[in-house]
Amino acid sequence: MRTLTFYAVLILTLQACSHTAIVAERDSHEPDESTKYSAIFYIHADADYLYHDANRAAVRANERALSSALEIAEEAQSGEIFIIHQKRKRSFLGIIPRRNNDIYYFRNGTLQQQIKYRYQGASVPFLQKEGEIYHQLTAGRPANREQSYFFFFGHEIPVSGGEGYHNSHSDVNVNASALVSGLNAFVHDEDDKFGLITLSTCSNGTPLIAEQLLPLTNYLLASSQNLHLSYLDVEGLLLLQKDPSTTPHQIARVIAKQSFDRLTKDIQTEVALSVYDMSEVSLYLSELAEIVRNDEETTRPNIFRENVDCAELEQFDATVFTQGVETWYRPPRFGRRASSGIHSGWGCKID
């Protein structure tokens, strides 16, 4: 019996040496030209994502996001969809690491491959492994980058630090610069950009985050305030099925409007969603980011506090710093901001 147990463990150990494993694969020879747009979904699940909806039912936000992404992938009959579900680290017998993360690759509504993989620790930075797999799966296919989308679902991405972003991978930092490096792992060259990056996270509609993402996208959709794990409704991507000429800007506006309508029905707290036209924002973003940095260095605000409107900064010029920003805003039902009817679209940590 001991011998059988030894060999069983040995086999599992040898299998675990590989960081990836193909779970499902389809032999497809469809023409490359059949895909008109591409989207990457990153769904973070290595943290606490439990919340209660308007009916007080317990919901795990990451599972809801995964279900939505899979439904979109199946309906994307002319799209290429890449879904990353990054989960908590697990091991067999407490010693053998398991391939616990999932990648789904769809093309034209059909699952081409499902891959299970595991992290290799801090030696591989955030999203680098996933970017490598992405290029392996999509090699040789022309990229229509004007119609390319990146949807990030997770907690607030800190500007710096980020050691505890993953509950079970504390050695892998996740912060703004790590996100930028990770996104660069999915592009083809330094001139490559996404049409739209959507941050379905709390409090990342900020000058400092936008400044870092500026070289990587034409449009950014984010919330300058809390989202409370309800996430954004990104089904607007499927407008491309009805009209392939729909622009990333139009899709961003639809996602923002639909998400805003649902959120304002479900919650009583502040709701703020903004679409940033990065070409317009770029004209003043470095100046605004510098104002924010100087204020933080002077006042040392508590970075764990909720954002407030950057318009509260003395040097904030609303005639300049709101150009290229479209915001859907509803103040909280209670508290000091309950009477406020407008928001600049920019969130700041202000003491």
- Tally of extended strands? 16
- The helix count comes to 10
SS-derived structural category: alpha/beta
Beta-strand share of residues: 15-25%
Give the overall shape.
Answer: globular
**Helicity, as a percent range:** 25-40%
Largest sheet properties? 10 strands, mixed
What's the pLDDT, averaged over the residues? 85
Q: What is the topology, as strand order, of the major beta sheet?
A: 1-9-8-5-2-10-11-12-13-15
Q: State the end-to-end CA separation.
A: 65 Å
Q: What is the string of SSEs from the N terminus onward? A: HEEEEHEEEEEHEHEHEHHEHHEHEE
Give the low-confidence spans: 1-17
Radius of gyration: 21 Å
Care to give the gist of this entry?
Helix content is 29%, strand content 24%. It contains 10 helices and 16 strands.
Describe the structure.
The chain is built from ten helices and 16 strands. A ten-stranded mixed sheet has the order 1-9-8-5-2-10-11-12-13-15, sandwiched between helices. Strands 3-4 form a two-stranded antiparallel sheet. A two-stranded antiparallel ribbon has the order 6-7. With 351 residues, it is of the alpha/beta class. Strand 11 (194-200), helix 5 and strand 12 form a beta-alpha-beta unit. Residues 1-17 have low confidence and may be disordered. Helix 5 (207-213) packs across helix 9.
